[in-house]
Specification:
Layout (H helix, E strand, L loop, with lengths): L1 H13 L6 H10 L6 H17 L9 H11 L13 H4 L6 H10 L22 H7 L6 E5 L3 H10 L5 E2 L4 E4 L5 H4 L5 E3 L2 H5 L11 E4 L6 H9 L4 E6 L2 H13 L6 E4 L5 H8 L4 E7 L12 H6 L4 H17 L2 E11 L8 H10 L3 E8 L9 E7 L1
Parallel strand pairs: 5-6, 5-8, 6-7, 8-9
Antiparallel strand pairs: 1-3, 1-4, 2-3, 9-11, 10-11
Helix pairs in contact: 1-3, 3-4, 15-16
Length: about 375
């Protein structure tokens, strides 16, 4: 299996974090078609484990020893990679993460989870650093939000022997890689993380209200809002035309009325003014750009290349966006501020700044800690004008 090692080493040494790791691997495999399906799975697993915990190990050990320690320390879903572990390690792979780390340390491997995140930011209330760091060693689950015919969806999953867990009436937790796109009609479900789904509990829309999703992206929160109350009159905005096109395609798939679309950078006050022309909305969703730290277990390469100094830049951008959006909120309306960050500087500190500088009141704020369910973590604050 020497060529597996060679390809893994090449990917790790050539990848620089400029594009998502999944996209990089897909392009890499297109250029190396001699690699079969099993080879690709093993290389991908080894590379992802590297980015999950490559930094926890001292520089004194070599590349292959480092990969073996990463494979052992992380939860892995590709059993073929066990062949790369030393014989004495294989039977202990099924231990819990704490026992695996203790075993590595007894073996003389300096596996220090604290090194996963070299900087020391303050976390939002409700997040424990040690628990969160250990969650980086496992791939989050796949979650779907059932839109229609829930019992039928579950029966189809059972028929295909796909194990699932009901987190609530509409949210199912499934194994990663479950081939749901091959067995379920796409209009019946939405792939959406459990914590992202949980933000919908803060919306509480009423019939025919006007809503603005000011940083809509591909529309996960907008679709959630429309599934809760289809009659809301929705406006969406993003500075990326292509991602708004994806949003519109998703609205077609789910048979929702097309929202009004605005291509604008909400952080640019003058540009936003030209588009809005004095309009106001009953409520605003502000799913602000952020570090994405609450999703890093899903995209460990982002943590690997992230620098702590970036947090302040995100915090400043979030304040600008939310402050500008508040100008178009009706009196009595709510701005629902959301991030997929666990950092206090992007969450509570932004909210405190908004409260100090705008005529608004805080109704509630909460970190949605997804670690227990192997989900992402998110932050939500509801601010009333």
């Amino acid at each position: 299996m020497r060529f597996i090692w060679e390809h893994t080493r090449f990917v790790v040494e050539s990848y620089n974090g400029g594009i998502p790791l999944g996209h990089y691997l897909k392009n890499y495999f297109k250029g190396h078609r001699q690699l079969g399906s099993r080879d690709r799975k093993m290389i991908s697993e080894m590379v992802y484990c590297w980015y999950r915990c490559g930094k926890v190990l001292g520089d004194e050990i070599g590349f292959e020893e480092r990969i073996r320690a990463c494979l052992f320390g992380c939860e892995t879903g590709v059993r073929q990679v066990l062949q790369f572990l030393p014989e004495g390690w294989k039977e202990r792979k099924g231990l819990d993460v704490g026992s695996r780390i203790a075993f590595l340390q007894r073996e003389g491997v300096g596996f220090d989870v604290e090194r996963i995140m070299s900087f020391q930011p303050c976390l939002s209330e409700g997040m424990d650093r040690a628990t969160w760091l250990r969650s980086m060693l496992q791939q989050p689950r796949l979650f779907i939000r059932i839109r229609e015919r829930g019992e039928w969806v579950k029966s189809i999953l059972g028929k295909h022997e796909i194990a699932f867990v009901d987190l609530n009436e509409d949210c199912l937790s499934l194994p990663n890689g479950a081939p749901i796109d091959k067995i379920l009609p796409p209009e019946l479900y939405v792939v959406q993380d459990a914590s992202s789904q949980a933000t919908g509990a803060f919306f509480q829309p009423k019939q025919n209200e006007t809503w603005w999703d000011c940083c809509s992206g591909a529309g996960g929160k907008s679709l959630l809002l429309k599934d809760i109350e289809a009659t809301v009159k929705l406006t969406v905005s993003d500075k990326r035309a292509t991602i708004l096109h994806n949003l519109l395609e998703r609205f077609k798939l789910y048979n929702h009325q097309q929202p009004e679309r605005i291509i604008a950078d909400v952080s640019d006050e003058s540009e936003l003014y030209k588009h809005m022309k004095g309009r106001t909305f009953d409520h605003i969703i502000c799913d602000a750009p952020c570090s994405g730290s609450g999703t890093w277990a899903r995209t460990p390469e982002q943590l690997y290349f992230f620098e702590g100094k970036f947090i302040a830049s995100f915090s400043l951008l979030q304040k600008e966006i939310a402050t500008n959006a508040l100008q178009y909120l009706k009196k009595g309306g709510r701005l629902i501020y959301i991030t997929c960050s666990i950092f206090r500087q992007e969450n509570e500190e932004v909210v405190n700044d908004l409260l100090e500088n705008n005529p608004i009141q805080l109704e509630e704020m909460k970190i949605i800690n997804g670690t227990e369910n192997k989900a992402d973590s998110m932050f939500v604050a509801v601010l009333r004008k």
